[in-house]
Amino acid sequence: MARRKKIYEGKAKVLYEGPEPGTIVQYFKDDATAFNAQKKDVIEGKGVLNNMLSEYFMSGLNQIGVPTHFIKRLNMREQLVRQCEIIPLEVIVRNYAAGTMSKRLGIDEGTQLPRPIVEYCYKDDSLGDPLVTEEHIAAFGWASQQDMEDILSLALRVNDFMSGIMMAVGIRLVDFKIEIGRVFDGDFQRLIVADEISPDSCRLWDIETGQKLDKDVFRRDLGSLTDAYTEVARRLGVMPKNSTPVTKPTLIN
Amino acid sequence: MARRKKIYEGKAKVLYEGPEPGTIVQYFKDDATAFNAQKKDVIEGKGVLNNMLSEYFMSGLNQIGVPTHFIKRLNMREQLVRQCEIIPLEVIVRNYAAGTMSKRLGIDEGTQLPRPIVEYCYKDDSLGDPLVTEEHIAAFGWASQQDMEDILSLALRVNDFMSGIMMAVGIRLVDFKIEIGRVFDGDFQRLIVADEISPDSCRLWDIETGQKLDKDVFRRDLGSLTDAYTEVARRLGVMPKNSTPVTKPTLIN
Ligand SMILES: Nc1ncnc2c1ncn2[C@@H]1O[C@H](COP(=O)(O)OP(=O)(O)O)[C@@H](O)[C@H]1O
Ligand SMILES: Nc1ncnc2c1ncn2[C@@H]1O[C@H](COP(=O)(O)OP(=O)(O)O)[C@@H](O)[C@H]1O
Ligand SMILES: [Mg+2]
Ligand SMILES: [Mg+2]
After folding, report:
1. ipTM of the predicted assembly exceeds 0.85
2. Closest residue by CA, ligand 2 atom 13
């Protein structure tokens, strides 16, 4: 494989320059972090599962006309995506209270919300991704009024679609986070869903048992994260075709 | 069971007065009709399957905040629903060309449409449910401009959710039809999804094999309709708990 230029290494992924201008390669690492990277570990196979699952959700969204950055999966750990200008917001959609919302507002985890609530956090690890309002977003120019409308409608469409997927396999979509990017078609800008959609970025609870099938398993030490993500992949029929247990490559040299 | 007043008998269902004012009981018959009832048959078990499946989809829609008439399932063939004033339109959402759209516009069945297309047909069996435009709808006062906006957004939300459900179980949602009803909360009117959502009102193709799992099996004599609907129910985990084959009640007297 030709040597590619690394553009960015984040907590869960590495970005490389893609083969065509305007494309990048997303490499999914096995690194797991939580609480703004205060808790860290390497979870064998996580990257492969998230790569496959993000492909599954993003290609499904493309199919129904919700534009995403996803172009195609390249191999077990990498996917080709459209490069975009990431809007520095974590867009969170919540159907049930959990996590920081439960803590901040004193609502028991699992309480159904009166309607889906969309929250925005300013994406800045050094600040701990603080919650912001549309006032902040407008005042600091992170997104225009039109952008905000488009982001809201993208977020709600992703929620409807993901809720359907999850319901069909006996999972409750408690909440999820997406990132949105700008792409330019000539003079026009459009917004697309970027980054990843995976059990790292969703809260997924088994409808019957309440069992957590998402990153909270790692955050709260509830067992094997790979087992949880594998269960999601299994229910969706998303499994590495070559379904031997995912192990580290053997170093040869 | 107390004797209930029959309100209406249609091609696939019977409506009875419900226990509370503003409610009705929908009884799902085994009758199958096609081509405006020129083709007819009784398909043992169809009513039970459609009752269960319509419950599954409608209660999922209620969950995600798409309002529907569904209140609760009463038994294998009946569900309690909120009575509404049905808008006399069949609202059709198409993701792939099929059926009458393919015939009318000369597009091969299975061709993916550039985006979901919403069509309206005037619900009148004696006219064969003719396609109408928003001009007709406005001119004849079947729905106001605001109604039309609400209908469009309901239809697209149902499409996103149903597309997710179907994708998760390996089924392509080709198209579907819904009916919309008006309910009054004091002085306010709201629109809700009514009638049924079932393989009678959707086109469902297996993603891998293209096998039809919907009423086209009956329309086109492609095999057992009950087997097709049972397969949809099985994939969704929607099966009569008492899963013995559904047979006619034995008449005792
Ligand atoms: N299509 C894209 N174009 C450009 N940047 C992207 C795209 N998709 C995701 N990104 C960015 O790539 C990085 C993904 O790596 P990740 O390990 O998640 O980083 P972080 O630790 O910053 O969250 C994120 O900063 C994300 O905003
Ligand atoms: N919630 C509701 N309130 C009142 N009428 C309803 C409701 N849901 C469905 N309907 C009507 O009940 C009838 C259902 O029976 P069906 O056998 O499908 O009739 P049809 O042969 O007219 O299509 C339809 O006419 C439909 O418009
Ligand atoms: Mg990230
Ligand atoms: Mg009908």
Report:
1. no
2. B10
